[in-house]
Amino acid sequence: MRELVLNCPEAHAEALSDLLLEAGVLSVSVEDADGDTDAERPLFGEPGLEPEVQAWDRNLLVALLPDGLDPAQVVEQLCDAGYDEYQNGQWSTRDVPDADWVRLTQSQFQPIQVGERIWIVPSWHRDSPDVPARQDEAGGAIHIELDPGLAFGTGSHPTTHLCLEWLSAHVQGQETLLDYGCGSGILAIAARKLGAGDTHAVDIDEQAVQSTRYNAEVNQVSLKAMLPNDLPDGQYQLVVANILSSPLKLLAPMLSNRVQPGGHLVLSGVLERQAAEVAQAYAPWLTMEVWQARDGWVCLHGHRLA
């Protein structure tokens, strides 16, 4: 396979990407033309938010060509759409080396140990000698089989680690639990394997709900995953929400009132500098304090008085 590479200013990156896809390329990526030089600059936004600009001042558009598609024909379509500068050769092609892309992708995801007991294990590592044998009984090693997918929650992010460690340290057995913003279902599944009782998992994304149901089945745990409107009335002994600070603040009344007297609320997805602001949003119902911090993120915990 080959790639078509075009030089492109920021103002044209999005429109040219669309035109390239319309011309039949398989995919388009935008790269910093000044990458790995002194002129390189970061491009990012607040976690969970779109950056203000979608490209750099100088970009390389890299389009993956299917077999049989002539790059000159693609460039001609760009020129017909008004981008005459590419008639002068501001483009090139390069070969894509043959590789086992499935194996290369899988190699990026290794088993992850969280605390002393929990292991996040991709399916292709389930028989790895580097992972201790599964012992789901009290005190033993707990395996959560989880492959990277559409929903957030592979076990690699510090916020997921913090929530998993809190659950590992505090689940006593048979507590009712609500995982709000469940993503892949990793927290709900871990809670069940740690001994929690009836567990509900909620997400606004139907794909996340389906992912949670699938992962629960793979891990042989029973839980109910659903969209928010399907969540029945009731309170829980444990409520966990690993989302982001803005939705957590908006959800403060609802999440707080889902915690039964004597129960616990655990929040993550919060940067250290946002902790006080999020805690203030919950102050009318619970006192939230930082349980642990890691890599600039915090896990907040609150106990509702009986």
CATH topology of the largest domain: Rossmann fold
Distance between the termini: 65 Å
Give the topology string: H per helix, E per strand: EHEEHEHEEEHEHEHEEHHEHEE
User: Helicity, in percent?
Assistant: 25-40%
Sheet with the most strands: spatial strand order: 10-9-8-11-12-14-13
The DSSP helix count reads 9
Largest sheet, in brief, is: 7 strands, mixed
Total domain units: 2
Silhouette: elongated
Radius of gyration, Cα only, in angstroms?
Answer: 24 Å
Taken as a percent bin, the fraction of beta residues is 25-35%
CATH architecture of the largest domain: 3-Layer(aba) Sandwich
Could you list the spans in which at least 5 consecutive residues all have pLDDT below 50? none
Provide the CATH top-level class of the largest domain. Alpha Beta
Which class of secondary structure composition applies to the elements? Answer: alpha/beta
Number of strands: 14
Q: What's the mean pLDDT score?
A: 88
The name of the CATH superfamily of the largest domain reads Vaccinia Virus protein VP39
